[in-house]
Design brief:
Layout lengths: L25 E3 L11 E4 L3 E5 L3 E6 L16 E2 L14 E7 L29 H11 L5 E6 L2 H4 L6 E4 L3 E9 L2 E2 L8 E9 L4 E9 L4 E9 L4 E2 L6 E6 L8 E4 L15 E2 L9 E8 L6 E9 L5 E9 L3 E13 L4 E11 L2 H11 L4 E5 L2 E5 L1
């Protein structure tokens, strides 16, 4: 799908706002206000810290605590409750991939940094039983996929220079990066853009990941973590997981005890567009728990606002006390010059009903924009 876009330079708009991407239709959510003291932006050569009236978050520029993309590990604070994210960061971006096998060249191709372009399915021929079993638990074995372009951004992205835009009722951060190398038969240079908007008065942020492709592919997708992984020891940091796409229409609440033993992503709690009915809402959340007292806190949720963009998603327990909540977006034919994107809301909620109410208001949007009128979700 190609997103119609118009680009306007910063000089053609007020200094507080500039346009990132505007599609044909959209709903304006941000409105100007006179008071701009509700948010602080603290930037140094390593990171950008955003502090609003309800949240704190850090976006790394280099030397991250865990990953280079998304919201930095442990930095996302809900001021109302004092709880923080308990994984490795939020909305972390991974490979640009496609369906298929790299068997013909996976042993031969190395990236410039020494990290394999091929070999995503290397474990199929792995002789060490422990490594083979870990790989099966981490990646599953029923759905073959391969890398289109690298690097794996969360691991190998070089330092970046995000752009900060501040309006009267929002703070936005835009990060872009071009993929540096490609698998055989593909070109390097597709552009990833992540735009994050922190609205005034809210306990969530809105985020867009967009790919501008330089390649053709029959089934291209971008892999990320939505909202993020969960680090725990026998459920000490969370009490339950909520997945809206199972046991529809109300979804399913899964107790922490289901994640005490590792299992692969293709065993349970997964979603595939080719095997599941598209749900009304695509929400994944975990109920935070105080490690000291055992008392429940808020839900930390990720809402992918157009269910149709989700190609595959899973919620699985890896060895080592980490639940991964990987999501792959698009998974459709792409031609060089095409763009695709997904829009998400990520933040703290007191109830599942609250998540669904917000989702119902903004369902169907796939992109995010800021311009002279404020910020908005667009289709």
């Amino acid at each position: 799908m190609r997103l119609p876009r118009t680009f306007i330079t910063p000089r053609s708009l007020p200094s507080s706002c500039w346009l990132v991407a505007v599609a044909v239709s959209g709903s304006v959510l941000g409105q100007p206000t006179k008071d701009t003291e509700w948010a602080q932006v603290i930037e140094d050569d390593r990171a950008i810290k955003i502090e609003t009236d309800n949240l704190e978050a850090v976006i790394a520029k280099k030397d991250p605590k865990q990953w280079m993309t998304g919201i930095e590990k442990g930095s996302f604070l809900d001021k109302a409750t004092g709880f923080r994210e308990v994984g490795d960061g939020l909305m972390v971006v991974d490979w640009l991939m496609e369906a298929g096998s790299d068997e013909a060249w996976r042993e031969k191709v190395l990236a410039p940094d020494g990290h394999g372009v091929g070999g995503y399915t290397w474990y199929e021929n792995e002789t060490d039983p422990a490594r083979r079993e870990y790989a099966r638990m981490a990646h599953g074995s029923s759905h073959r996929k391969r890398v289109v372009e690298g690097p794996q951004l969360c691991h190998r992205m070089k330092p970046v220079h995000p752009e900060v835009t501040r309006g009267n009722d929002f703070v936005a951060v835009k990060t872009t990066y071009k993929y540096e190398y490609a698998a055989p038969g593909h070109n390097a240079g597709s552009r990833w853009t992540q735009l994050i908007v922190f609205p005034r008065g809210e306990r969530y942020f809105i985020l867009m990941d967009q790919i501008d492709s330089v390649n053709d592919s029959d089934e291209m997708f971008l892999r990320n973590d939505t909202p993020g992984c969960i680090r725990h020891e026998k459920g000490d940091t969370f009490s339950e997981v909520y997945l809206s796409y199972l046991s529809s229409p109300k979804g399913v609440r899964i107790p922490a005890s289901e994640f005490f033993t590792p299992f692969p992503p293709d065993l349970k709690f997964g979603y595939r567009r080719d095997t599941h009915k598209t749900p009304e809402h695509f929400i994944r959340a975990y109920h935070l728990r105080d490690k000291t007292t055992g008392k429940d806190g808020p839900w930390l949720a990720g809402l992918t606002l157009s269910p149709a963009v989700v190609y595959e998603a899973w919620c699985s327990q890896r060895p080592g006390g980490i639940i991964v909540m990987i999501e792959e977006i698009h998974g459709k034919p792409v031609k060089a010059g095409d763009s695709f994107s997904a829009a998400h809301v990520v933040g703290y909620f007191d109830t599942i009903k609250e998540m669904h109410r917000l989702y119902a208001r903004h369902k169907g949007h796939t992109a995010l924009a800021i311009d002279a009128s404020g910020w908005r979700l667009v289709k």
